[in-house]
User: Fold this.
Amino acid sequence: TPIDKIRNFSIIAHVDHGKSTLADRLLEMTGAIKVNSGMQVLDKLQIEKERGITVKAQTATLKYFYDGEEYLLNLIDTPGHVDFASEVYRSLSSCQGVILLVDANDGVQAQTVANFYLAFGRDLTIIPVINKIDLQNANPEKKDIIKISAKNGTNIDQVLEAVVERIPEPTVDRNKPLKAFIFDSWYDRYRGAIVMVYVKEGVLSTGDQITSCCTNKTYEVRSLFFLRPDEEKVTKIFAGQIGCVICGMKTSGEAQIGDTFYLKGSPVEALPEFKRAKPMVFAGVYPMDQSQYISLKAAIEKLTLNDSAVSITRESSIALGQGWRLGFLGLLHMEVFSQRLDQEYDAQAVLTVPGVTYKAKIFGSKNIAKYRGDEVIFSNPSDFPNPVITQEIFEPMVLGTIITPDKYLGNVLSLCIERRGKEKSTKNIDNERIMLQFILPLNEIIIDFHDTLKSISSGYASFDYEDYGYESSNIVKMDVLLNGTLVEELSTILHCTKATEKGKQMCKKLLDIIPRQQFLIVIQACVGAKILARENLKPYRKDVTQKLYGGDKTRRQKLLARQAEGKKKMRMIGNIALPRETFIKVMKK
Ligand code: GDP
Ligand code: MG
Assistant:
């Protein structure tokens, strides 16, 4: 296809405004799939179907006849949720235009605003489209905007025409040496890594020897295909086109998003890397049982190849054994990851309560090797710097944008204040809706902020956030003591104003789940030397041999042996034996 007959575009929208439905209609209209197949073709992952959200950006190549000419339209479906902004950035790096889809009932929402600025900042052509005009109280504005019903297929042809007419052809050069940009990759059990590329210059052909700018490794191109959305094998991908490459990449580290391929021997300058997603939320991941360590490791490696936004480091805990500390873009991202681990790899994992990354400024630290500089970065409570040498602690902040109908304004304001938010601005965006901007600590929004916001606004308020740097804050480490002995795994990092309440909750929870022992256990929560909460777990006399009084000796010995076996799996805190289960119950999300 000649370059002037190619259009590369994305659909961006707030979640549920109808992106996937529109994408399916476009596929039907162009004959890529059968009409009324009734399925959302681009939402391939099981979890996406269950939750109705799009996680991975999926791409499809459509053939469309316009004015007697055949056009190749590359449609890139993007996720709409706040956590997945990186997937949106990545998709946009190969587009010249976007369809900005807005639900006629809901109007502009927080994510619509964020997506609009992403596209606007990249000088992309924006085609505004209003969806769901079939609904009773739909109230589309009287502007020259395409109005569609993706569900009923109304005016979809206008969308396709606008794509051809308004979006410019890609600016590429097919006569130069090959330059191909990796913008997505995923793992296939049988074929290894599948790499999606946007060919910016030259031609990519099967049999080519291609070299990665990042790693300098060379691969042979084994097969090439378009997604239409089924795989269509091709022998060449020309500049301006998007397609998939299989080239024998096996390990997760090899397919780096943002990397550039060139023909072996004709190096080119790497394309500037797009804005890389930064993990914001961290959690420990451990096998349910240590015997599953190897299989969990393999599953995590494969999943991270599919999701390069997850960061991994090793971690170990006395109670839970060997595991990893994973960094996620946000809470939904973390949930999606653990659910995929369950569904796609059959790996049982324990995810610990999530936390964020703090920074601390240390006094005269030069003679303490561990703190070489005067700044320490930590997210794990076990790395919390000693308060004696700590000058100041900083926590990560976000700039949150909330759009809410004005009748919920009071609720929304109290929620933001309770979460230690500071108001930045308030604007009316129409007759009944308000846009608020708050600066909030990230650790206050990662647990249940979004759900709470939805429930206090009957589902009407929408939320989006972006990174807002670090701020000095009164952050402390709360410890748990059992009969005076500190249980390292149960420490938490939190703001000083939240410590007492959290400490009380923690002690109550432990009182419920720690198995009674033959002596009293005092459960305490403290910050430094200050005790914030206390519960007493009463003793319980348990003698397994009691029932067998007078019974035979071998049975009695067997029972004692079994009890000893059970003890091996226990974690000893002083003289208190705690089963792994107990830790899993407290540490799990
Ligand atoms: P996405 O999250 O943006 O991908 O949204 P979906 O395509 O999954 O659509 C969200 C919901 O809106 C689904 O229940 C769709 O059936 C529904 N929907 C999509 N387009 C229309 C439309 O034109 N009219 C009506 N009434 N519902 C629609
Ligand atoms: Mg969708």
The longest strand covers residues 390-405. Residues 19-20, 43, 54 surround magnesium ion (ligand 2) (CB under 6 Å). DSSP finds 13 helices and 33 strands in the chain. Residues 553-568 form the longest helix (16 residues).
